[in-house]
Amino acid sequence: MNNVVRSSNHSPLQQRGEQQREQETLLPAVDIIEEPNALKLVADMPGVTHETLKVELDNNVLSLEGEIALTMPEGLSALHAEVRGQRFARRFNLSHEVDSDAITATIVNGVLTLTLPKKDSHRTRRIEVQAA
């Protein structure tokens, strides 16, 4: 979709650089844990901070995007730099079981934790059996 929206004002060299940057997008390693009332999604995004993280839900598609911003210390400039920022991106199709209005997210030291609560209708519940 980005190719459809992207302006054609770029030179071929700029377009090649953008395509190379798109290819450098990393897939964060993700663990998904099922609990009785929720799913936990834990994504490793080292170097990503709260400010450079974007979590969105659109049409039951959960998108995780984060950038590693490398800044030079004040007063210094690089003559040569081989290290540069990276971009993480991952998308998941959510089941109808997930209560999308109750999703929560936290990020600590580059580890993103999302809690995806299950809808009440899809939670396991014990039914009491009474003796007659």
Poorly predicted tracts of residues: 1-16
Largest sheet: 4 strands, mixed
Radius of gyration: 21 Å
Q: Count every helix, treating DSSP H or I runs of 4 or more residues as helices.
A: 2
Helix coverage percent: 10-25%
Element-level helix/strand string: HHEEEEEEEE
Total strands: the figure is 8
Share of β-strand residues: 35-45%
- Which descriptor suits the 3D outline? elongated
- Mean pLDDT over the residues: 80
Structural class: mainly beta
How far apart lie the N and C ends? 63 Å
**Main sheet strand line-up:** 1-6-5-4
Describe this structure in words.
The protein is built from two helices and eight strands; from the N terminus they run ααββββββββ. It is mainly β and 132 residues long. A four-stranded mixed sheet has the order 1-6-5-4. Strands 2-3-8-7 form a four-stranded antiparallel sheet, with no helix packed on it. Strand 2 (29-34) and strand 3 (38-44) form a beta hairpin. The longest helix has 12 residues, at 12-23. It is elongated and about 85 Å long. It starts with a helix and ends in a 15-residue tail after the last strand.
Q: Secondary-structure map with pairings?
A:
Layout (H helix, E strand, L loop, with lengths): L1 H4 L6 H12 L1 E2 L2 E6 L3 E7 L8 E6 L2 E7 L19 E7 L10 E5 L2 E7 L15
Parallel strand pairs: 1-6
Antiparallel strand pairs: 2-3, 3-8, 4-5, 5-6, 7-8
